[in-house]
Amino acid sequence: MELRIRNAPALRRSRPVVPCAQCGDILLAPEWSEYLDDRHVRHLWSCDACGYEFETEVADPVPGAQAA
Fold first, then answer.
1. DSSP type of residue 25
2. What does residue 59 show for φ and ψ, rounded to 5 degrees?
3. Owning domain of residue 47
């Protein structure tokens, strides 16, 4: 039996893709997230394919600030 998802392409576009920094495999969710303050979140990623671990940090824009 084969599982097919009709909206698979739309599902892939619905969220940012995070590739492994070592092998490029797609990572679905971080191992953990740490809220640093109201605007910053740090994520720890761990790749099941190669075992590589790395961190990323996300910063929300300052409210009311315009992009240059």
1. P
2. -125, 125
3. 17-59
Q: Residue 15's pLDDT is what?
A: 67
Is pTM beyond 0.85? Reply is no
- Cα–Cα nearest to 16, from 30, 2, 37: 30
49 DSSP 8-state letter = T
At 55, the amino acid letter reads E
Per the document, the length of the chain is 68
Tell me whether residue 67 is in a domain.
no
Is 68 a member of any domain?
no
Helices (H), 1-68: 8-13
Helices (H) then strands (E): counts for the chain: 1, 5
pLDDT tens for each residue of 15-63: 678 899 899 999 999 999 999 999 999 999 999 999 999 999 999 887 7
Q: Which residues make beta-bridge pairs with 19?
A: 26
